[in-house]
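In this section we walk through a basic example: taking a raw amino acid sequence and producing a predicted 3D structure, encoded as discrete structure tokens. The instruction is simple. Fold the sequence below.
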Amino acid sequence: MNSLAHGGDTSPVEVTNISGHGIWLLTGGRELFLPYRDFPWFKEQTVAAITHVEEPSPGHFYWPDLDVDLSAEIIAHPERFPLTAKRA
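The resulting token sequence is shown next.
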């Protein structure tokens, strides 16, 4: 008798809150805050676009509707990654 393969992650990435200051992302039992001052791509987006987030690999987050890729390291320490998008 063969054992079944382990399933996928039972706690997928989730946007838990959107406020006037930023968004909160829950992943792997920890919550990350993305303030709009550091992550301006999210500020004027729809709730649907913000909450449609994927985690293609651990600690790598992708918002397909916004074409935004971020790592947990960038989110936790934005001061180490000073490049930000320029507004049109």
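Looking at the output, two observations stand out. The first strand starts at residue 14 and ends at 18. Residues 47-51 form the longest helix (5 residues). In the next section we compare this with other chains.
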